[in-house]
Amino acid sequence: MGKIYSTTAPGLFSRGPFPIPPRRRIANQFHRLFSIKAGMRTVCVESPLEADAIYWAESDPNIIEVCEQPLRIHMPFGNRPYFTFDISFKWTSGNECFYEIKPESSMERSSNNNLIPKNWEVIQDICRANAYTCQVLSDKTINEKSLEIANWRRLLPYARTAYESDEPWIVEMIIHVLKGIDKATIYQVFAQMPEVSNEKIICFIAKLIHQGQMSANLNSARLSGMTTLSLINHDD
């Protein structure tokens, strides 16, 4: 039997984001991408699946904060001196969850026949003992959001531009249009705002969707001029 570690020892956990070691940047499919919810910065992740999880978070207005390599458990797991979660989401409720992201093909069957990563039951017990919530995100779960993810790969650069701009009058104009035309298409918004470039309109539409002030049918159709828009809980 190996050395026994306390699951509530001081210093057992530390918060990230932690940099990815150079050797793992070479060995894995290293990705850099910009994230608004990570604090308007570039994040570094180790696989396309982790990158998709970031876009998924950007697509959901109920998720307000994202962090990569967010939490480390300073305890040996196999040949590794510690374990680091892949990503964390914080929700509008204030709850935070730490995720390990794996394809199902790399997981093993647990005692109750669920697919889990190696050492997951131990990791889960340690987190539970320290009031952390953790879950597994599989490729199957993430792929269920593939259409929204693809749409936000396109929309995120536009939303970034709007967040970095200070043109509230454009927001007011878009809201005014949607008050008059419920479920207006993007083309209809363009037509109602001829004095503003289409690209700039898209930027602020993306920001409004990102903030949860507007909804769009991005989970059922690819982004296009026919994408429909509606206001959410907008006070008159």
TrEMBL record:
Protein name: TnsA endonuclease N-terminal domain-containing protein
Origin organism lineage: Bacteria, Pseudomonadati, Pseudomonadota, Gammaproteobacteria, Thiotrichales
